[in-house]
Design brief:
18 strands; Jelly Rolls; single chain; eight-stranded mixed sheet; 242 residues; 40% strand; mainly beta
Length: 242
């Protein structure tokens, strides 16, 4: 009879390349920009890595740097959506699925342009009004000292002459952190908060969707206060790097 093994004893190997490994290493010292690695296929990122666009169904891209303690905000301007486009803006941990919208699983919190509702673990929460082209969405995150950082580590290994990432098993259920929150704004006005969010390290995330249309949905992210349309009471996201 075969013995039982815990999930943590198994390691999944995910094919990669030398160029992707270099990108991962480079991003460790990158400024606060969108990640070229933590980006779903079909999303295009601009040269300055602050603008994202897509012509496909819902998919997401995270920013390079997350936070696990403090009070920080970033902004996203909805540049274009077209007739069928939609966007979600929020935060998620590194365990979240990028081939879907932020808030789809337990690892993220987002707000949706088509309804104005916030979403966590695919459960909507009535919050505010719908938003669209020209609107500026702000996301503020407060994580107290009690929050535990949860960073997903992966290592490049060679096996059978090919390069792979060692894939960690899924994270265990995160515990709520008393006093923490994620707050959403549209054009400087608060829509509301998710309170007592689950512990972890959270990254800015944008998710784009289009139906059958020629032009892509497009958004632009800002992490530096001088470029904010609505300066916050909290720190700009880039201050988390200091």
């Amino acid at each position: 009879m075969a013995s039982k093994r815990s999930q943590s004893e198994f390691v999944r190997l995910v094919p990669t390349s030398a160029s992707e490994v270099r990108r991962v290493e480079d991003e460790k010292s990158a400024p606060c920009v969108l990640s070229a690695v933590n980006c779903a296929s079909g999303i295009e990122i601009s040269g300055d890595r602050l603008t994202a666009s897509s012509r496909l169904g819902y998919r997401s891209v995270r920013a390079v740097h997350g936070v696990h303690k403090g009070y920080f905000l970033f902004e996203v301007t909805v540049a274009s959506l077209g007739e069928t486009g939609a966007v979600r803006v929020g935060v998620q941990t590194q365990w979240a699925d990028l081939h879907g919208p932020v808030g789809m699983d337990q690892h993220g919190y987002g707000v949706c342009s088509t309804t104005g509702n916030a979403v966590h673990d695919s459960v909507p929460k009535q919050m505010g009004r719908r938003f669209g082209e020209g609107d500026v969405v702000g996301v503020a995150v407060f994580l107290p000292d009690a929050n535990a950082p949860r960073t997903r580590h992966r290592e490049a290994v060679t096996w059978g002459g090919k390069l792979y990432w060692t894939q960690e098993p899924p994270a265990e259920e995160h515990a709520p952190v008393e006093g923490s929150f994620v707050e959403f704004y549209v054009n400087g006005a608060s829509l509301g908060r998710f309170r007592n969010v689950k512990n972890g390290s959270y990254h800015p995330t944008v998710s784009l969707f289009t139906g059958e249309q020629r032009d892509p949905a497009r958004v632009r992210c800002e992490f530096i206060q001088p470029r904010f349309a609505y300066p916050p009471a909290c720190e700009p996201w880039i201050e988390a790097l200091r």
